[in-house]
Design goal:
The protein has one domain: P-loop containing nucleotide triphosphate hydrolases (Rossmann fold, 3-Layer(aba) Sandwich), CATH 3.40.50.300. Helices cover about 45% and strands about 15% of the residues. It is an alpha/beta fold and about 260 residues long. It is built from 12 helices and 7 strands. The chain binds adenosine-5'-diphosphate and magnesium ion.
C-alpha cells in the first residue's frame, strides 16, 4: 500500500510545491512508484511536472466532483511519476461539494482505488485551509511541513500544529507530522541558525537532517516543466532533494522494522 503524504503549510511561498515536485521525482529516481496529486488551483505542481494545466483532459476537479474514476483522471507525464493535475477549475469545487455528505473524504475514497499501484502518493496543498485542503489532510497518513528558517516561520507554527491536531481528532485519526523540512536554507545566516535550533527543539527527530539550500536552479526548473533532477542533476538543489528522498526511505524502513 502506498504511503500517502501531504506537503502542507498555511504560509505561501515556503517551498511546498517545489518540495512536492522534487520529492516525487527523487523517489521515482530511487525506483519508487509515485503519484503526485496537485490540490492547488494554481496548478504549479502540474506545470512543474511538465503537464500543461490548461490542456488537461481531466483533472483532480473531475475526481472531486465524482465525474470520472480517478484512474481516468491521472495524466500521462514524462518525469518518472504520474500526475493527477489541477488548474483553476479546482477553485469552483469548494462550493459544489460544500453541502454534500462525506465532503471531507472524497479524495481519501478516490485514492483507495489506486493506492495499491503506488509506493508513494504525494499531495501538494494550497496555503489556505479550505475544504480542498481538508480533503487532502483527511486522505493522508502524514504531513511533511516545509519551512523557511525565518523569524515569521515560528509565528505560524502553533496555528499549523493546531490545525493538524484538529483534523486528526475530527476526521483522520492516523494523521501525524512525519517530518519538517528546512527550505531555502542559508547556512551563513545567523538567523537561519537560531530558527533552525528552535525548530530542532520543537520537533526533535521529526526535523529532517537534510536541508534544502537556496538554489537558483530550483526556481528556474519549473519554467522548463522539469523537476530539478532532469534540469540540472548536479545542482545543489537536485542533490538535496535526492538526499531528502533517501532520508525518508531510511526512516520509513526503520519504522517498519520497529513495528515488526
Ligand atoms: N530552495 C529554493 N531555492 C530557491 N528558490 C526556491 C527554493 N524553493 C522554492 N523556491 C522558489 O520560491 C518560490 C516559492 O516556492 P513554492 O514551492 O512555489 O512555494 P509554495 O508552494 O509553498 O507557495 C518559487 O518561486 C520557487 O521557485
Ligand atoms: Mg504551492
Amino acid at each position: 500500500m502506498a504511503q500517502i503524504i501531504a506537503i502542507a503549510n498555511q504560509k505561501g511561498g515556503v517551498g511546498k510545491t517545489t518540495t512536492a515536485v522534487n520529492l516525487a521525482a527523487s523517489l521515482a529516481v530511487l525506483k519508487k512508484r509515485v503519484l503526485l496529486v496537485d490540490m492547488d488551483s494554481q496548478g504549479n505542481a502540474t506545470m512543474g511536472s511538465g503537464v500543461q494545466k490548461n490542456d488537461l483532459l481531466y483533472s483532480v476537479t473531475d475526481v472531486l466532483l465524482g465525474e470520472v474514476p480517478i484512474e481516468t483522471a491521472i495524466a500521462k507525464s514524462e518525469v518518472g511519476y504520474k500526475v493527477l493535475g489541477s488548474n483553476r477549475d479546482l477553485a469552483g469545487v469548494e462550493l459544489a461539494i460544500a453541502e454534500q455528505d462525506g465532503r471531507e473524504f472524497i479524495l481519501r475514497d478516490a485514492l483507495k482505488e489506486v493506492e495499491s499501484s503506488f509506493d508513494y502518493i504525494i499531495v501538494d496543498c494550497a496555503p489556505s485551509l479550505s475544504l480542498i485542503t481538508v480533503n487532502a489532510l483527511s486522505a493522508v497518513q502524514g504531513v511533511l511541513i516545509p519551512m523557511q528558517c525565518e523569524y515569521y516561520a515560528l509565528e505560524g507554527l502553533a496555528d499549523l500544529t493546531q490545525t493538524i491536531d484538529r483534523i486528526q481528532q475530527a476526521l483522520n485519526p492516523e494523521l501525524e507530522i512525519i517530518g519538517v523540512l528546512r527550505t531555502m536554507y542559508d547556512a551563513r545566516s545567523a538567523l537561519t541558525k537560531d530558527v533552525s535550533e528552535e525548530l530542532s527543539q520543537y520537533f526533535g527527530k521529526k526535523l529532517y537532517d537534510t536541508v534544502i539550500p537556496r538554489n537558483i536552479r530550483l526556481a528556474e526548473a519549473p519554467a522548463h516543466g522539469l523537476p530539478i533532477i532532469y534540469f540540472e542533476k548536479s545542482s545543489k538543489g537536485a542533490v538535496a532533494y535526492l538526499n531528502l528522498a533517501a532520508e525518508m526511505l531510511k526512516k520509513s524502513k526503520v519504522k517498519k522494522g520497529s513495528k515488526a
